[in-house]
Specification:
Layout (H helix, E strand, L loop, with lengths): L12 H18 L32 E5 H4 L7 H8 L3 E2 L16 E2 L7 E5 L2 E2 L29 E7 L4 H4 L6 E7 L6 E10 L6 E12 L3 E12 L28 E16 L2 E17 L24 E19 L2 E19 L14 E21 L8 E17 L3 H4 L16 E17 L4 E12 L3 E15 L2 E12 L3 H5 L2 E9 L2 E9 L5 H5 L8 E12 L5 E18 L3 E2 L2 H8 L7 E3 L1 E21 L5 E18 L4 H5 L7 H9 L4 E11 L2 E10 L2 E3 L8 E3 L2 E12 L2 E8 L35 E9 L1
Parallel strand pairs: 4-7, 22-26
Antiparallel strand pairs: 1-6, 2-3, 4-5, 6-7, 8-9, 8-35, 9-10, 10-11, 11-12, 12-13, 13-14, 14-15, 15-16, 16-17, 17-18, 18-19, 19-20, 20-23, 21-22, 23-24, 24-27, 25-26, 27-28, 28-29, 29-30, 30-33, 31-32, 33-34, 34-35
Length: about 800
């Protein structure tokens, strides 16, 4: 049965209780005395616990489990897109015309920053992306892990812990943890091919994947995954009617949509027993993704009839050809000794982003300018050594053994900025994306060490509790200690309450501390969108210090949750979890500081020639409150027929408790480091509600699936409140069907069957640029419309 979840429904708070009651009543009314096979509520979990027998239903914090079948229930080959349709609190918009963010899009859990969710693979920390999201998109200023580098065909299941877990896993686990568990074993395999296209006859996608196992030695196994995805671009841009004097007046010159993409993924997962209680293991993943994304159209004339460049007398659209290369290797050994389960591992991961700018020009070079440029690269690496040990201890008075877990970890991070070719940054630089200059480049690193402990116990047959404590020391900003206390009380087999309280942190990334570049950006000035040479400066640079920058501190959080788990019969379950997340010193990318002549002169003396500037700062204290509701019901039918329902709802609201003080030098020049738009983007640009209802019906080799998701309204904010635009809620319907005959499975479906689009941009302040960019980058379901697809698979 598919596990479908939800995030955000536009119901007022007062209706939430009615919704929950209605869902529960529906489930209990349909519940029958006949018992079915164990549901996912009884699945053993490994995320957020060190116990070997913890299940979803008796977890002290909310856990979602998504199976391989769930991940195949849509037409998308992107893991983040699939998760956004299946999880209660995950948002994955599809920004376009956003430089590196167009090639590496971030996902958000519970409306918080994308880098406040920790990604694990087989329980091991996954590295973050080299790309810094510096354009006006959701997650602006973050550089989270890139979920789309992990092939869906390699995944056995995903466990999502919707609770703070920094005391258990360290930095980043403020909103929650996504643990991706890879397929294992020597037996079986599958080859699958898929193809799809949007109803506008663009965005054609084709994929081919294989996952299979083989024996390794006498008792070991090796599992291999290979996947190839190709995607053509989509375009939903509008015609350009801004200037009748333009040679291409009235034509569609801009591109707004998904980029052209080619991606290759390779993965292995292996285990080899050395003795009865000793095993070596390892897994590795390699991903190379090439994307071609469009920048903003450059008109033929700059003002009046002044030709911008003789190289493009009709105007031109710069193209950003990016290559994301992602690699990771984990190797470890684990075993048992004197009752202890222990695990020692080494973990290396890297993300490299390089960029070529094509169909462009460096205006400073005039007619001799090349039209293609290498703009430079970014690289982020993580090296980690970890040791865990856990043991069960018998204590008088306890109904079951207590679990004690201890561990230590050492981690080294490195971030590199590589220069582009001189023509890419000379003078005005390449149009579309000016290259990284030698003064921007560098290699930055830090290290950290941590120790941690965890205790889990059943104090009585009804009451369980756990306590976790972790201490970390970072070379660049000092020490952080995190703790977590959680518990669960089972009133009856059908009803239990759970609660947790914790504090956590997120270390500022090396990218946030050191990212530096000067480029041309589309900035709204006095209600008009203009292209302005803009500098982003690392907080330690002289330029940033001249504008009031100070070293970044760690983000701090306090998480509180209270939930109920209701299981009236074995084949029905309902969970309701409320939460509050207080996050202090949140790191934000500043607003666009349009510099007056005096500050431009200060920077010019440093050799920095820009008209606007930005840098990272500990900007806000926020409070996020919300509720998750997830329900499943499997209706037993005759024979092998099955009918399953899943329903879920999330609402979250974030409010600002404190805004950091404005630097004196900016106040003196009538500038705000953190402006209204920057604040509103962090709290209002994601839907407050999301509601989903899924149905699965299986019979005689057939499986039919339908999922309706209602995305709540969201706001595209501006500094001038009158230019804000609120986008309406919308319901998207996905349907699919599959038929299994022998070892073959044939499936087809339609995502967004009703061809829903978000409202079009109506305000010039929202970067509509005269109607050429009609859709908001904040749309939680994109703006491509209806998508048809078909798949065929052979399994053995």
């Amino acid at each position: 049965m598919n596990t479908v979840t939800f995030t955000s429904l536009p119901f007022p708070r007062q209706r939430t209780a009615l919704l929950v009651a209605a869902v529960f009543s529906a489930f209990t009314a349909q519940a029958q005395a006949q018992q079915t096979d164990a549901t996912q509520a009884e699945s053993v979990i490994v995320t957020g616990t060190r116990s070997i027998k913890r299940t979803v239903s008796d977890s002290e914090a909310p856990i979602d489990i998504l199976t391989a079948k769930d991940l195949q229930s849509t037409g998308s080959g992107e893991l983040a897109t699939v998760l956004s349709r299946l999880l209660p609190s995950l948002n994955f918009p599809r920004p376009a015309v956003a430089d590196g963010t167009s090639a590496s899009r971030p996902a958000q859990l519970r409306g918080l920053s994308p880098d406040q969710t920790l990604i694990l693979v087989n329980g091991k920390r996954w590295h973050t992306s080299a790309v810094v999201n510096v354009n006006g998109t959701a997650g602006r200023g973050s550089s989270p892990a890139d979920l789309n580098t992990i092939p869906i065909s390699s995944i056995e299941k995903i466990e999502v812990l919707r609770d703070g877990a920094a005391a258990q896993y360290g930095s980043d686990a403020i909103a929650g943890v996504i643990n991706i568990i890879l397929k294992k074993g020597a037996d079986g395999g599958e080859v699958q091919a898929g193809i799809g296209q949007y109803s506008k006859r663009d965005g054609t996608q084709a994929s081919l994947s294989a996952n299979f196992g083989t024996t390794l030695g006498e008792k070991g196994w090796l599992r291999v995954t290979a996947e190839q995805r190709n995607q053509k671009e989509t375009n939903r841009a509008g015609a350009d009617f801004r200037n009748p004097l333009e040679p291409l007046y009235g034509k569609v010159n801009q591109v707004q949509g998904d980029p052209k993409l080619q991606q290759t993924n390779l993965g292995v997962n292996a285990s080899l027993p050395l003795a009865a209680d000793l095993e070596v293991y390892g897994f590795a993943n390699y991903s190379r993704r090439n994307t071609d994304a469009s920048a903003t159209w450059r008109t033929a004339y700059t003002t009046g009839t002044t030709l911008r460049t003789s190289l493009y007398p009709n105007g031109f659209l710069p193209n950003e050809a990016a290559t994301n290369t992602d690699a990771s290797v984990v190797a470890g050994i684990k075993g048992r000794a004197d009752g202890w389960r222990w695990d020692a591992s080494l973990n290396y991961g890297s993300s490299e982003f390089s960029l070529d700018v094509n169909n462009s020009v460096n205006l400073s070079l005039g007619a001799i300018s090349p039209t293609s440029f290498y703009a430079g690269k970014l690289k982020n690496t993580q090296t980690l050594a970890n040791f865990d040990a856990a043991k069960e201890f018998e204590f008088a008075g306890l109904p079951n053994p207590l679990t004690l877990a201890v561990g230590a970890e050492y981690r080294r991070d490195q971030y590199e900025i590589g220069a582009g070719e001189p023509n890419s940054y000379f003078g005005s630089g390449a149009q579309g994306f000016s290259g990284f200059q030698p003064s921007n480049t560098g290699s930055f690193n830090r290290h950290s060490a941590s120790i941690y402990a965890n205790i889990e116990a059943e104090l009585t047959k009804q009451l369980s509790a756990s306590f976790a404590l972790r201490h970390e020391n970072y070379s660049d900003f000092g020490s952080v200690t995190s703790g977590k206390l959680s518990g669960r009380f089972e009133f009856t087999k059908e009803f239990a309450l759970r609660a947790a309280a914790s504090n956590g942190f997120r270390a500022p990334s090396l990218a946030q501390q050191n990212y530096t570049i000067s480029t041309t950006n589309l900035i709204t000035i006095n209600g008009t969108s203009q292209l302005v040479d803009t500098g982003t400066f690392g907080v330690a640079t002289a330029a940033a210090k001249a504008l009031g920058a100070v070293p970044l501190e760690a983000e701090k959080s306090r998480n509180y949750s209270l939930g109920a788990v209701i299981q009236p019969v074995k084949n029905a379950s309902l969970s309701i979890d409320t939460y509050q997340i207080d996050s202090d010193n949140r790191i934000l990318y500043s607003g666009n500081l349009v510099l007056p002549a005096a500050l431009q002169s200060v920077l010019a003396k440093q050799g920095v020639l820009v008209g606007a500037a930005r840098y990272f700062t500990n900007a806000l204290d926020t409070q996020t409150r919300g509720v998750d509701v997830v329900g499943t019901y499997q209706l037993p039918l005759s024979g092998t027929d099955k009918l399953g329902f899943t329903v879920g709802y999330n609402r979250n609201d974030t409010s600002v408790k404190r805004v950091g003080a404005n630097p004196a030098v900016l106040t003196q020049n009538n500038l705000l480091l953190i402006d209204r738009q920057t604040i509103s983007r962090a709290i209002d640009a994601t839907p407050k509600d999301k509601f989903s209802f899924g149905v699965d019906y299986g019979f005689s080799g057939w499986n039919l699936h339908a999922l309706a998701t209602r995305y709540g309204s969201f706001v595209s904010p501006q500094n001038n409140a009158t230019l804000d635009q609120t986008y309406s809620a919308n319901t998207v319907l996905d349907i699919a069907g599959s038929y299994k005959i022998g070892k073959w499975t044939i499936s087809a479906g339609v995502d967004n069957l009703t061809d829903k689009y978000p409202d079009q941009v109506t305000s010039a302040g929202n970067l509509n640029t005269g109607g050429t960019l009609p859709y908001s980058t904040f749309s939680p379901y994109g703006f491509n419309g209806r998508y048809y697809y078909a798949k065929v698979g052979y399994a053995w």
